[in-house]
Amino acid sequence: AEGLVLRLIRMSPTSLQRLQFKWENYHVFPSLCGKSFSKLKRLEISYPAQLRNESLERIGHAVTEAFTAIEQIQIETRHLLELGKAGFLKNFPGSLNTLELFGGLDNNNMECLLEIPGPLKKLAFMRLNSTIMMILFPKFLQLCTPC
Length: 147
What we know:
Elements: H1 2-10, E1 18-22, E2 42-46, H2 53-66, E3 72-76, H3 77-85, E4 98-102, E5 122-126, H4 130-144
Parallel strand pairs: 1-2, 2-3, 3-4, 4-5
């Protein structure tokens, strides 16, 4: 079944507008074979575990090279941080205007969000402890405000 789904994705680069990768068990993020998904606007990624290097590289390359018109990404905070450590965030497309994060966020890793080029219109933190949010959000706004 996985092979069929991957073939369907690879056959749809000019029409696919929304793509969801939601796994309950670990699977390697598929290689998109150099295809450009010019109409893809929304990407949702949900992994139960830490990303392995192969998946991390493939997701990073997909967002920076194949999904050039992406506007919305929903991803676990820890996976976004991994993409940042690997150097992908600074190369995210300028078309990205919505980022929906779920999972833990703290003061130490919040600065990686500033690596994303272009202004975001919507930044959503889902499933974040409200006490942590009250402490971190003002600090994040200070980071975003130019001197």
